[in-house]
Amino acid sequence: MVALNRRQLVGLALVLVLACALPFFVANYRVFQMTLVLAYAIALLGLNMLTGYNGQISLGHGAFYAIGAYTAAILMDKAGWPYWATVPVAGAICFAAGFLFGLPALRLEGLYLALATFALGVAMPQILKHKAIEHWTGGVQGITIVKPDAPEWTGLSQDRWLYFFCLAWVLVLFVLGWNLLRGRIGRAMVAVRDQPIAAQAMGVNTAMVKSLTFGVSALYTGVAGALAAIAVQFVAPDSFNFLLSITLLTGVVIGGLASISGAFFGAVFIQFVPNVADEISKAAPWAIYGIVLIAFMYAMPTGVAGFVRLARARLARRRAGQAVR
Q1: Which contiguous run of DSSP H or E holds residue 206?
Q2: Interior CA angle at 174 toward 173 and 179, to 5°?
Q3: pLDDT at position 207, please?
Q4: Closest to 117 measured CA to CA, from 249, 266, 226, 238
Q5: Where are the domains of the chain?
Q6: Under 8 Å CB-to-CB from 46, ≥6 apart: which residues?
Q7: N or C: which end of the chain has fewer CB within 10 A?
Q8: Contact 161, 154 (CB under 8 A)
Q9: Taking Cα atoms as reference points, which of 17, 19, 11, 265 lies closest to residue 164?
Q10: In the structure, what pLDDT confidence band is assigned to residue 283 with cuts at 50, 70 and 90?
Q11: Burial zone of 48 (CB within 10 Å; 0-12 exposed, 13-18 middle, 19+ buried)
């Protein structure tokens, strides 16, 4: 386990207290939106492991998001599984799918890998509509699932309970991700990204690191898809088109590449900015979205997390300069 300093522990404790108190001060619809933010944050952390820390560009992670969502929906609708049991199964299936996809992708790099993953994202909705699996996926109609009730002892509404359920998964996966990325495996991932030849000379199995990173990234994204499906109560092929993959990559860049906290900033962006753009202009919401996106990239080229780090560094230098005087 990677130790945190006292300031980081206090900061995380305050954030956790705020996150726990938030659903009691907003309407149920806002709680639902924040639940999706938590799910997106998990997906963005997984994609950031692949793109930010390992240097592999993926334009098809919406496919793994769809696999996770459909796994949860099928197990709940067809097999009668409890909702909480479907999430780890979705993660395991996506890990296997990501690892297997990562093996042939080892021969591809840069734009070629991006194009291969883009093809996966484009093909997934059509695969889900195929007649051979229509009995399981529901075809174009999709699957409707029942929103789970909160345990009686909690006294919570369904939306608030699902929020805390997702928050628990966020805590577990982010702690695991923190230790993974700050430990030996994380250093190997960064070494493969920056200096693959030198990493291989130092004994790093670059092929295995890339494949495992792809698998772990898909696992996180699959868990996020399962949580989102449970919250939304509905899955359909057209909900997981290639725009979802682009949206996830946009969230990673906005939040900040190679940043754990950036996943939350990116998740807030991709959940709320499109809604705000739609409220500003019903006629051209995507134009507003594009303008906001350009403004973010111009003002914060290293992402929100990078901007926060720079602001902290400047503040620390200013305080040091005042102390010397």
Answers
A1: helix 206-232
A2: 100
A3: 87
A4: 249
A5: 29-240
A6: 61, 216, 217, 218, 219, 220, 221, 224
A7: C
A8: yes
A9: 19
A10: confident
A11: buried
